[in-house]
Specification:
alpha/beta; Rossmann fold; 6-stranded parallel beta sheet; 7 helices; 6 strands; 40% helix; globular; NAD(P)H-dep_reductase
């Protein structure tokens, strides 16, 4: 059996970001799956400039090498988990920029949203659901809203994250059911 691949996209690039800690924890929990491989995709490493492609993404006529590499990377995955904090009742601009670079590459890919913040990030999920619906992605029924405070220590955040382990198990099952 060919193993399906799901990218865990780290949707924040700010210094001292919590997103990488959340993504690392998520990957550890999800690697219990024997059917799906989960990889971290860090937008800080992808390093896309603010949208600089002259043509609309749905044409797929990319002139910049970074965009072509981003397109190939997204196409190589069967689904995605977007991990991002809630910023001012929305989601980070770097995540929107990365999504907006592409068009058809996102179509029909199952996606889950994992947000975090003092209240778990519900407003960020509401805003992102409009985007994934417009891009014809397939929203999964399991989307985590994790309550973390900015001043939580790494150890405190780890303890809080582990209270969501059963929800992550459901997320893994949702991807397995969607992809097979």
């Amino acid at each position: 059996m060919i193993m399906k691949k799901v990218g865990i996209i780290v949707g924040s690039v700010r210094p001292n970001r919590r997103s990488m800690q959340v993504a690392d924890w998520l990957k550890v929990q999800l690697k219990k799956s024997t059917k799906v491989q989960f990889d971290i995709i860090d937008l800080k490493e992808i390093d896309l400039p603010m949208m600089n492609e002259p043509k609309i993404p749905y044409l797929g006529l990319y002139i910049h090498e970074k965009t072509r590499k981003w397109s190939k990377l997204v196409q190589s995955y069967d689904g995605f988990v977007f991990v991002f904090p809630q910023y001012n009742w929305g989601y980070p601009a770097v995540l929107k920029n990365a999504i907006d670079y592409l068009g058809n590459e996102w179509r029909d890919k199952p996606v889950s949203l994992v947000t975090f913040g003092g209240h778990g990030g519900p407003q960020a999920q509401i805003a992102m659901k409009l985007v994934i619906t417009g891009l014809k992605m397939t929203p999964l029924p399991v989307n985590l809203q994790i309550s973390l405070m900015p001043d939580d220590s790494i150890a405190t955040a780890d303890r809080k994250l582990n209270t969501y382990n059963s929800q992550v198990a459901l997320l893994g099952t949702a991807f397995e059911n969607e992809l097979f």
